[in-house]
Amino acid sequence: MRKLLLIGVCSLLCGCATPGDLRKDSADFSATSAMSVPDVVSCIVQNWESGTVTANISVRPLRDEGTSLMILGGYMQPIVLVDVRKSGQGSHIESFTAAPFLQSYIADVRKCTA
User: Fold this and answer.
1) CA distances (Å), 40 to each of 35, 66, 68, in order?
2) CB-neighbour burial class of residue 26 (10 A; exposed 0-12, middle 13-18, buried 19+)
3) Which CATH fold would you assign to the domain 2-110?
4) Tell me: the pLDDT tens digits for 49-75?
5) 48 CB-side CA count, 13 A
6) Distance between CA 12 and CA 112 in Å, rounded?
7) Among the listed residues 48, 34, 78, 35, the one whose alpha carbon sits nearest the alpha carbon of residue 60
8) How far is CA 110 from CA 2, 76, 94, 104, 107, in A?
9) Mean pLDDT value of segment 80-92
10) HEC string for 49-86
């Protein structure tokens, strides 16, 4: 319940951000992984669904052989954005958040950088 309230409060405080707005700032977390893009995406979604995220998750393809994952807050705007792109034999991950107190969601992303 607290997580749901946190997402609601963030939605009010963060305004109406777009994915492009979040990407304008430097990434909150950046890493590479030996896993493929689909494997990293699957890992992150499974981690979020197993208890961290109580909001909508959106998964969208990127133009450059990648996938974008978003946790959507009120009014369906992204409050957490993770871009996973193909890099060599693995993938490159960049995470962005709309507010500093959303860093707990990035912990689930970090687990998928093996």
Assistant:
1) 6, 11, 11
2) exposed
3) Double Stranded RNA Binding Domain (3.30.160)
4) 887 566 789 999 999 889 999 998 877
5) 25
6) 30
7) 78
8) 22, 24, 10, 10, 5
9) 94
10) HHHHCCCEEEEEEECCCEEEEEEECHHHCEEEEEEEEE
CB 48 within 8 A of CB 30: no
Q: CA torsion 40→111→7→2, rounded to 10°? A: 140
Closest CA to 85 of 65, 113, 70: 65
Residue 22: half-sphere exposure toward Cβ, Cα within 13 Å: 29
- Tokens at residue 109, please? 């992303």
